Amino acid sequence: MPKAELYIDYLNAIDVEALRLTDAEIIAAVEAGLAAQGRGETVIEPRVHLMPNAGANGHFNVLRGAFRAPIARAGVKVIGDFVDNYQQGLPSEMGLLLLMDPLNGVPKAIVDGSHLTDMRTGAVTAIGAKHLARKGSRVLGHIGARGTAYWNVRLLDSLFDFDEIRVHSRRPESRDAFAERLSADLGKRVVATPDWRSCVDGADIVVEASRLNAPEPLLKTEWIKPGAFVVPYGTMSAVELSLTDIMAKLVVDDWGQCKGGPFGALRPHVDAGKLSAETLHAEMGEIVAGRKPGRESDDETILFWHRGLSLSDIALGHFMLEKAARMGLGQRLRYA
C-alpha cells in the first residue's frame, strides 16, 4: 500500500483574529461541547501542571480530552500562565492546541491557544450565567483584567445587556485601560473601581478572576447579595471559606479536575470538605444537557467554579477550523 500524504491545518494568532468570531458563535461552539460532556459523549482527564523554573512566576497547564460525538476530535492544549508577562508586553497566557483523530492518532491541526483560551473561558462564564444567574441581572462586578477578563465581560453583556458594569484589578493603569477598552467596544459606560468591595458589593453577577501570587481572602462573603451568581476562578484562592456556606447550589465544570491539584479558587473549600461529591449540585455539562436543573428560583444564591476544560478548547478549535476553511484562512503543513 502506498504511503499516505498527511497534512496538518495551522491557524496562528493572526488567522484566529481574522476569523472575527461573533459572540454568538463562540458561545454556541462551547455550549455544544458542554452538552456533549453532559451526555457522556466525551473523555476528559484532569489537567496537569509543569513547573519549569523555580525562578519563574508561572507554570504550564496541560489539558487533555476527546469527543466521541458530535465531532471526532481528540486534543491536547499546553498553555503557559506567567503572571509577570505584562512587564515584557506579553499576555500572561500563551500556548497551542493540538487536535488529533481519536481513531488512529493522526495529528490534524494546530491552533493558537492564546485567543482561544480567552474566548472559551469567557464563553464558559457566560454559559454558566445563562443557566444559573437571575434572568433580570442588571449589575456585573468583575475582578481581574487579564485576557480572559475581556471575554467574560463581553460575552456576559451580550446575554444580559447590563445597566452597570464595574471592574477592578490591582494596578490602576491596568483597570483603567480595561474599562476604557470595554466602554469603547460595548458602547456603554464601564466603571473602574478602586477596591474589591466597591466592585462586587451588591452585584447581581460577580466574577473573580484575580492574579494573586498566594491565597488571600480578599472577596468577602458578606458582600454577596442574596440571589447573586458568583464565579470565582482565579489560580489562587481569593475568597473566604464561608463563601460556600451561603450557596444554594455549587456547580463546577468537571469534578474530576476540581477535586485535586494544587491550584484553584476553591482549593481550600475542597480540602476542608465544604465542596465535595456530596455537596456538589452538578457539573455544568449536566445542566446544559438538561440532566440536572439550573437556577430554579430568583432567591437562590449560586456559585460556579470552572477550572477550564480541554473539551471547550477542542470544541471551539474545531469550529475555528471549519470557519477558517470556509474563509480560506490558515496554512497547511506537510506532516508525512
How are the SSEs placed, and which strands pair?
Layout: E1 7-11, H1 13-18, H2 23-38, E2 42-50, E3 58-67, E4 74-82, E5 93-100, E6 107-112, H3 113-132, E7 139-143, H4 147-160, E8 164-168, H5 172-186, E9 190-192, H6 196-200, E10 205-208, E11 229-232, E12 249-252, H7 255-258, H8 267-271, E13 282-283, H9 284-288, E14 302-305, H10 310-327, E15 331-334
Parallel strand pairs: 1-6, 7-8, 7-10, 8-9, 10-11, 11-14, 12-13, 12-14
Antiparallel strand pairs: 1-15, 2-3, 3-4, 4-5, 5-6
Helix pairs in contact: 2-3, 2-10, 3-4, 3-10, 4-5
Q: Mind telling me which CATH architecture of the largest domain this is? A: 3-Layer(aba) Sandwich
CATH topology of the largest domain: Rossmann fold
Largest sheet: 8 strands, parallel
The whole-number mean of residue pLDDT values reads: 94
Q: Which ranges are low-confidence, i.e. pLDDT below 50, for 5 or more consecutive residues? A: none
Which structural class do the helices and strands define? alpha/beta
The share of residues in helices is: 25-40%
Structural domain count: 2
Find the count of extended strands (DSSP E, 2+ residues): 15
**Can you tell me the CATH class of the largest domain?**
Alpha Beta
The H-level CATH homologous superfamily of the largest domain, spelled out, is NAD(P)-binding Rossmann-like Domain
Order of helices and strands: EHHEEEEEHEHEHEHEEEHHEHEHE
Query: What is the rounded Rg?
Result: 19 Å
Described by the principal axes of the CA atoms, the overall outline is globular
Strand order of the largest sheet: 9-8-7-10-11-14-12-13
Instruction: Give the count of helical stretches.
Output: 10
The N- and C-terminal alpha carbons lie at a distance of 15 Å
How much β-strand is present in the residues? 15-25%
